[in-house]
Amino acid sequence: MTYKSLLPLLPVQPTFFTWRDEEVAMYQAGTGQPVLLIHSINAAASVFEMREPFQRLSQHFQVHACDLLGYGNSSRPQWRYRATIYVDLIQALIERIGTPTAPIAVIASSLGAAYAVVAAEHRPELVSRLVLICPTGIGQLDRSPDIGAYTIYQYLRSPIGRILYRLLTTRTSIRLFLTRQAYANPANVTRERIETYYRTCRQPGAYYAPICFLSGLLNCNIAQAFARLTIPTLLVWGSDATISPLRLVSNFVRSRTGVKVVTIAQASLLVQDEQPEAFIAQVTPFLVGNTSR
Fold first, then answer.
1. pLDDT digits 0-9 by tens, 257-270
2. For the AB hydrolase-1 domain, which residue ranges apply (predicted)?
């Protein structure tokens, strides 16, 4: 990838490593305890939604972030994406960054949080803490793909599906999504945010991963993995989240005792971007706390 082709998603330039013959964009800043940021999954997803935690946490931690395959500055191959691909990728990142003597903290959002849970359950000795932002996978987006999902996927792979994708990712559609689902305060739906999300939707190959998400192929049931975890876990929820409403937190609390829950006011799905100061104020003490299980 050349510099001119890169999306300006974070204040540092990405480096790339090859995974399954594709290029994964990685970003790093700061020193100290390692922290890995994982973004959510949607039609316009990228590490851009993690820019506030990236900049603020890098003042005290060694912060790593990535664009998942199919998004941001990473490769966007013509794959039929499945949840296991992202679980395996996040596990590879955990193994790449963490060690048993210096395990990493993982902060992940929405469906990305579900994948992070399963990956952490596979390699718990490499993960010290989990921060899950409006996570899915228990009671939401947890139904295994069936023949209906594959039928929808085939439809979305057709020329009609491409037209639908372009309609879904116009600036007007992005504004509606951000206003109704991502941010509680419409004033936060700025021109910069809209334009960045729009540009990431218009990159070559941007269509392939989102249609797998829309068809249900990326669903991930984490009920058993979450219940088995012993890694200290903090759930962060926006009080005004609509697409992943606050009531869903009860699914996680019932699955496992000892989980910490924080609700941040005047925030929706992208609470880490909408209320970054309140988010960091809650997350930082958790990251530096005692790591005993």
1. 899 999 999 999 99
2. 35-281
Residue 271 resides in a domain: yes
Residues 265/188/113/72 CA torsion (nearest 10 deg): -170
pTM of the complete model: 0.96
Mean pLDDT score, 28-40: 98
159 within domain boundaries: yes
CATH number assigned to the domain comprising residue 59: 3.40.50.1820
Rounded distance, CA 260 to CA 277, Å?
Answer: 19
CA–CA gap between residue 237 and residue 283 (Å, rounded): 12
Place of tokens 């790339």: 16
What's the total number of domains in the chain? 1
Task: Specify the pLDDT at position 5.
Answer: 77
Q: Return the ∠ at Cα 56 (arms to 15 and 280), rounded to 5°.
A: 130
Q: Is the pLDDT of residue 229 over 90?
A: yes
Query: Distance between CA atoms of 256 and 258, rounded to whole angstroms?
Result: 7
Q: Which residue has the tokens 């540009």?
A: 199
